[in-house]
Write a structure and sequence with these properties.
The protein has about 230 residues and is α/β, with parallel strands linked by helices. It contains 6 helices and 10 strands. The strands form 3 sheets. A 6-stranded parallel sheet has the order 3-2-1-4-5-6, sandwiched between helices. Helix 1 links the parallel strand 1 (about 1-5) and strand 2. The chain is globular.
Length: about 230
């Protein structure tokens, strides 16, 4: 299969890219900096790098046709912060609606070339999964800098489940707290996250494996699974 990845240089996106390539898929990655150290050494078989910005619709359109239209789009974007802490303030160069605006562009570009599947790295606490958060986590998400990320993810949800997502097979993957480590078995707790433990965790590599799996198969189409190890 052939995937277009948005956010391929991020901590999750680079792992998704590596997983897709290891599975034998062809990948196009829209990246601001093709020389980024988080990308595989070039030239890389089955990998096409397209310089550009997901906030620029013409760049999205170019990526969607280089070298050909993909079977699916995988989105692993996350707002930049002033440090690696998830509670750090947003970076001044990052718009608050980064993910929403990028996904809006992706949907518009996809429909123009007949690409009808998108898999998005969301987060636990959005949509029907909000009730699966414990009170301490709910307070953290609503009353710290995490609220900006949560709001952007909510806007993405409204976009893909609304009119602009009509006719598209979307998957909103909702992991909880992210950890480092190898890929481990993943449990799907449904769209509402019912039955998940109080402090759920999942390794980034586990998320990467699940995201590629969701792009390959129809099993999670038009679903928003909460996943954890």
């Amino acid at each position: 299969m052939h995937f277009l990845i948005l956010g391929a240089t991020g901590r999750n996106g680079s792992l998704i890219l590596a997983e897709a390539l290891s599975c034998g898929h062809a990948v196009t990655a829209l990246v601001r900096t093709p020389s980024s150290s988080s990308l595989p050494p070039q030239p890389q078989p089955n990998l096409t790098l397209v310089p550009g910005n997901p906030l620029c619709l013409p760049d999205i359109r170019t990526a969607l046709q280089t070298p050909r239209a993909p079977d699916a789009v995988i989105v692993a974007l996350n707002p930049r912060r002033v440090s690696d802490s998830p509670f750090a303030a947003p970076h001044p160069d990052t718009p608050e609606s980064l993910m929403h605006d990028a996904v809006r562009n992706a949907l518009e570009g996809m429909k123009a070339v007949g690409v009808l599947k998108i898999v998005i790295n969301s987060m636990q606490g959005v949509g029907a999964s909000s009730g699966s958060l414990t009170m301490p986590f709910r307070m953290l998400f609503e009353h710290t800098n995490m609220k900006y990320t949560l709001d952007d993810h909510r806007a993405v949800d409204a976009l893909v489940t609304g009119k602009q997502g009509e006719g598209v097979d979307w998957v909103l993957v909702r992991p909880p707290m992210l950890t480092e480590g190898e890929a481990l078995p993943v449990k799907d707790y449904g769209d509402d996250g019912k039955g998940i433990c109080w402090i759920p965790k999942i390794t980034r590599k586990s998320v990467a494996v699940f995201m590629v799996d969701a792009a390959e198969k129809p099993d999670w189409n038009r679903r928003s699974p909460v996943i954890a190890n």
